[in-house]
Structure formats: structure tokens, C-alpha cells
Amino acid sequence: MAKRRKNRTHLKGANAREAHSDGVPKSFIIKHGQVGSSLTQLVRDIRKVMEPNTASRLKERHRNKLKDYLTMAPALQVTHLLAFTLTPLAPSLRIIRLSNGPTLSFRVERYSLMKDVLKSAKRARSTGIEYLTPPLLVLASFPPPSPTTPPHLSLLMKSFQSLFPPLSPQTLSLSQARRVVLVSYNQDRGTVDIRHYTITVKPYGVSKRLRKILEGGTSAKSSCSFLDLGNEKDVADFVLRKRGEPGPDGYETASSAESVAGDENAAVDLAEDYVGRNNKKGQRRAVRLDEVGPRLELRLIKITEGIPGKEGAVIYHEFVKKTKKEAAETAAVHAAKEKLRKERREEQERNVKRKQALKAKGKGEDTGESEDEEGETEQGYEDEGDWNEDEEISEGETSEEEVGSEDESSEDEDRPPVKRPRMKGKR
């Protein structure tokens, strides 16, 4: 009998190549400190957005600190750490580029959870299979690089680009484009808005009822894939007339017969086969984005070099502005700290090498010393075992003092025990 091959837990095809390919960013999304249930759910939603290149089931413990994740992440080839915490003013988010920085600190002005966005939407659905591929990143409203553009905006844009895998139109398969993450910069408010969408492809130029016939089934809850026309007298009644709302001539109006996505700008010709029924290459389809959440409005507070615990100079600060002299003094202080840290590190490495050399040298000497010690101990045991002719040994003979002590002990044994008087009454 042939051995059954296990396939369900292994990646295949493009997903396997992508998972093991170099240069794909991986992330940890964590919370630290005392946070509420809403912020905890937001962490789970952000993990859904960053899938599949994130630790979706990462469990934080109360005794875990931020330093623990910073130490463990490089060994697991994690490139980014997103840490949420709750401050007295508002929730905050830090995006840390491992392992040398920079660190971007944001204030979360407003946010909406994924469940709230799905409840408010009419047709938003999430099947789950779209999270098997990374999303497409779209940057909007960021100023183009120029001499007049603030340098922190260019760094902010590059930081968001590094969170997601780079796009390659030559190698990207059309079926992998399932989600979109929109990061837009609001110049009036000075904030960054983040939205998350799923891509939906529908037949173009077809009414809703005719699309049901083409796609099959009347609803997603129905287990039957065939259309139920039992209450209709004719197929035309179902295709051309609203159910329960007959027009003057028995047909529905033109507004109700139009397609859901009837805009010509939203129609495209499929370059490859796409996910879904009848989405074949060369067919014209309408593309629609359905928001699934979460929503985030972030305000950039600070950008620093390095990572928490090894901070360097402050590149940008929203509220604190320093002069050139103060910035130079701060840079000199950080340079001195970095120089001292390197010197201590080098000294520690020299001490480790010196101790290892002494330990190796001691092992070689211990082999000779142990042989000498064994010879000495054996000789000592032999000396103790030899007889000494000058030593007097009187076996069976006793001295007068010993005899006297024996007589006194015998007399004590013959004496009767002394009786103590009994005391009447309670003590």
C-alpha cells in the first residue's frame, strides 16, 4: 500500500516561491502595556491586512516587553515591528524597521474596526481566500520628490512602501491581485489615512437579474446553484420586471435595468483568467472595490534613528523644533554615546576571547597535573597502609588510669537509683 502524501499544510506553486523568496518583508504586529478590547481587536484586524507575511497567531503575554520582540525578531527574519500602545492622550503606533531603524511614531487620531465597516456596508463580503496573497499598495496624494518637498514625507512614503512586497508587473499574476491597501496623505490635516479594500469583478453592461442567471443562484445562502423561477410565469417576467413592482407595461424602468458597475472607466478587458465564474481571458468586466476595513487616521509625531533602546538622533518632530546649534549638540551627544557603546562592545569581545584562550590553555595543563595528583594520592594511600616499626602498639594492655575508671564505673552501676520525693498538689 502506497504511503499517503501530506499536502494540505504545504504551500504550492507561486505561494511557495513567494514565501521562501528573499526580500519579502515580514512583520510582527503587537500590543504592549494595558490596552482595551477595542485596541486589541484593532491589532487583530491589522494582522489580517498584513497577511500572509505576518505572524497572524502571535500571542503576547503580560510579562513580555518590547525588548523581547526586538531581540527575537531578527532571528526569525522579521523586518518590521508594529507596536500599539495606549497613552493618556490617545492610542499610539510605532513602526520600527529592524534591525537598525528608523522608528516612526504615530498618534492614532481615529480608527474603525473591521466589523464596524462590514456592518455599515451594503454589499461588502469577505470570503477569506483573498488573504492568501499580499495586498497591492496604492500611495495617493503624497507630494512628488523635489527640493521643496519636506524630507520627512519622502521617508514616510518609503516606510509604507517597505511594509509590503514590491510589485512586479512582469511576474505578477492577475489572480493574485485580490486586495488593495490605500495610503493617502491629507495635506490639510497633516494626517495619513489608511483604507483596506477587496477587488470584486462583475459582468459589465448586464442587469442585476441577468447577472444572477449568468452567475447562478439567487443568493449566497442558497445551497442550490440553480435559479428558482417557480413563482414566475415567464423568464421575461424575471429578467425585465421587478418582482412585486410591475410597471405600466409590465416591465421595469431603465434605471433598474442598468448594471451595478456601468461606468465605462471601471470596465477592463481581462488579460488573464481571474477568480470567479466566467471570468476568462479577454472578457470585459467591471471592477469594483469593496471596503472591508479597518480604517486608520494617523498623525506623524516623531522619526528617530535606530530602534527603541538604541535611539539615535531625532530626524523629525511634530511639536519640538530645534535650531542648528541645538541639533549639532544633540548629534554630538549621540555620537559620543555610540562611540562609547562600540568601545565597550569591543572590550567585551576581547575579554571573551581572552577567557576562551585561558580556558583552552588550562585544559591542556590540567591533563598533566591530574596525572601527578593521582600518583601522589596513590603513594599517600600506600604510606598509610605500611607499618611503622618505631610505633608502640599495646593491644590488650591497660593503664592504671583506665583500670581506676573502670572500677568507678562498676561501683556506679551497683548503686541503687535515688528516689525523688513526690510533691503533692498542682504545679
From TrEMBL:
Transmembrane segments: 69-90
Key words, A-Z: Membrane, Transmembrane, Transmembrane helix
Ranges of biased composition (kind: Basic residues): 1-11, 352-361, 418-427
Domain of life: Eukaryota
UniProt feature, compositional bias: Acidic residues: 367-414
GO cellular component, one term: preribosome, large subunit precursor
Start and end residues of each stretch annotated as Disordered: 1-23, 330-427
Compositional bias (Basic and acidic residues): 335-351
InterPro entries listed in its UniProt record: Brix (IPR007109), PPAN-like (IPR045112)
A Gene Ontology molecular function term of the record: rRNA binding
Example of a GO biological process term: ribosomal large subunit assembly
PROSITE patterns in the record: BRIX
The protein, known as: Brix domain-containing protein
All copies of domain Brix, residue ranges: 25-309
